[in-house]
Amino acid sequence: MPLQPSRTVAELRELRELTGDENGAQRVAWTDTWAKAREWLRAKVADTGAAESVDAAGNQWFTLGGGSDRAVLIGGHIDSVPNGGWLDGCLNVMAGVEVLRRIAADGAPPVTVRLVNWADEEGARFGRSLFGSSAAAGSMTDQAELRGRRDADGTALPDALAGQGVDLDRALDARSELDGAAAYLELHIEQGPVLESMQLPLGVVLGTFGVERHQVTYRGQAAHAGSTPMDKRRDALAGAAKLELEIREIAKRTGEGAVCTMGGVVTKPGIVTSVVETAECLLDQRHLDAARLASMLASAREASERFAAEEEIAVEWERIWNIEPILFDERLVELADESIREVAGPSHRLPSGPLHDAAEVARAGVPTVMVFVQSLRGLSHTKLEDTKEEHLELSVQALDRLAAKTIDLVAAQ
Amino acid sequence: MPLQPSRTVAELRELRELTGDENGAQRVAWTDTWAKAREWLRAKVADTGAAESVDAAGNQWFTLGGGSDRAVLIGGHIDSVPNGGWLDGCLNVMAGVEVLRRIAADGAPPVTVRLVNWADEEGARFGRSLFGSSAAAGSMTDQAELRGRRDADGTALPDALAGQGVDLDRALDARSELDGAAAYLELHIEQGPVLESMQLPLGVVLGTFGVERHQVTYRGQAAHAGSTPMDKRRDALAGAAKLELEIREIAKRTGEGAVCTMGGVVTKPGIVTSVVETAECLLDQRHLDAARLASMLASAREASERFAAEEEIAVEWERIWNIEPILFDERLVELADESIREVAGPSHRLPSGPLHDAAEVARAGVPTVMVFVQSLRGLSHTKLEDTKEEHLELSVQALDRLAAKTIDLVAAQ
């Protein structure tokens, strides 16, 4: 049975009908709609002969035994954010199903092939993303903290998980699933504008950005907007404004692939008759190279202090979150590049700004690569998320080629 | 009986005890505490022989008949904001009482002298400042709108006024109070840092600033902070940052007495993972010269549009409020300058950023001047508001000199 990429598009539409509404996809992890989607997926995979199992973290595995226990993994997530798009996460899963069908139809593969539907990639309900993949990767270290989390309705995380047969305390037992994993492949929509602006359907992902996230707070002095001369002011907003403009220069100087964002400023007292006393800025910096990320952070900090001195205000940095860059496997990047060139002509290598389950698997030492397919207008996490049908079909073909090449590579090792 | 400036300070402390608490002054207009303060004031003035009357807008007048119906007015306001300071408004009133005592003790003056305690200068309860003075000046044009206003407890403005014997529909009858007014004098704390920074106790006010107040809204495009390259962004915050820095240059270029303030920015969505889509900026510009104010506004608007074009974002201006500059009387400014030099050595001429009842009286065509006394740290509308006792005493002396000179001037006209 040859690959039928159009079937993937049809099945994605079927899933949308089954688990979405007029506001978009509603497959939030640990809900009944999510469980319904997993049930539907089980039925779709059944005819491939792949054996289903659910691990201790709730990840859903479909295993096609082969000539060796060494395994090539294809992974995605069927969960969505509330009012989500029709492709984020489930494209990977459904393309994987089609690839599994093709492989199964070709007879027993030389190595084991497994499709995994990770549990709760989005973290939409409890604010903890990459749940299932971080458990399998062994990098989940926050179980004690997770025990206390509740959703908006007050349901505790452990209770929601238990409702779907998952025991939070045992989630790390999922680590054994990566035993024997020789490669991990993931296809995802780009969720950004790069491929569309280059008029390319597909690209190879080099890795996921390292992220440095801080709250930068400037403190000046509230003063009457009418009675305080300009040279007597200590305006916290001036520090924030200079920093907002400077982080863009820092990103430009660092070169392609560097991004710095001031996502918000909160001004206090924030009234028209007063100079701003406090400006709380949210700063997000990302780069694929750890040294350059560290340098961008140092530059921003140095600049922020220079601006504080110029304005006679104080500045204070508080780290909100950070993560190291995670680089994908060079050999698999080459294979993905080849696969894309074969099905779509030109390819392009780009970093991923958003995190993905692939980053967790890569952190666990499994050679990993991702393929991105173009997103229209870069939109995601909204029902407006979309990708041209012809590009979706090309992406299924590229994943299939990549899987074939990777199976050959692993079989030859 | 000679002038006793120390008595004014003692009486201000007495008023603070009577109508304040641990959070500051509580003489909010149209409340029982305010009525109690007016009652206390009536008793203080009684021994001068000045006749009390309350006009149709609730203004409390004390009239000392003289050799002519032409009147020199001294005005202030005993109402305060909630948790207010011990000087804002009532310094003027109590200094006026002391001056009235001195004049009465000297025998019948050559012209009529009137002390006025304006009703509801602060507008703290219903958000409408300069109530009584704008009624007397005939510039109150918003009675229909005021009829619908309610305080935080839901009490309607007309009901609160009626509780103090004032009929909103008749408030403009107070206009007749300015018949025969030949000069208006007002002493006030500076509520700003200029005199303190110059180490001067007293200054002459040239007029009140014209004000242009706008909301300037930049609209760009929300985009993922990780997946959107720097050159693909349309960042609304960049427009706001450039404008914040540019308005300071505009004020500097305009020269002394120009102030421009961005009092707040609201960023949407305002999250760390997104480029800012909308930045709503509060812009306040003030100048004593109408043409320069208009020029500052035009410069800010032109710059804002240039920044929008540079950033490929949209900008929109909405006027919140504006008022023309109001210049005080040149002859009275000279007399105030002389009076200050006589009691305190050097003087200084400065504009007033905040509005005052004096501005309403000046708009009505009555020759007007104000004297400012130094504010410590520029603080006002807080219990921390303060002025050195020696400076308070000098201010009472200066007002007395100014009243004497003004009476002579009017008598000679």
Give structural notes:
- The structure is a homodimer of 413-residue chains.
- Helices cover 38% and strands 23% of the residues of chain A.
- Chain A has helices at residues 5-19, 32-46, 90-105, 131-137, 143-147, 157-163, 194-197, 236-254, 290-311, 330-344, 357-363, 389-412, and strands at 20-21, 24-25, 51-54, 60-64, 71-76, 112-117, 181-189, 202-208, 210-219, 259-268, 278-287, 314-323, 326-327, 349-352, 368-373.
- In chain A, the strands form three sheets. In chain A, strands 3, 4, 5, 6, 7, 8, 13, 14 and 15 form a nine-stranded mixed beta sheet that branches. In chain A, strands 10-11-9-12 form a four-stranded antiparallel beta sheet, covered by helices on one side.
- Chains A and B meet through helix 8, strand 10 and strand 11 of A and helix 8, strand 10 and strand 11 of B.
DSSP strand count of chain A: 15
Which regions of chain A contain 5 or more consecutive residues with pLDDT less than 50?
Answer: none
| Known CATH architecture of the largest domain in chain A | 3-Layer(aba) Sandwich
Indicate the proportion of strand residues of chain A: 15-25%
| CATH domain class of the largest domain in chain A | Alpha Beta
CATH superfamily of the largest domain in chain A: Zn peptidases
Number of domains of chain A: 2
The helicity of chain A comes to 25-40%
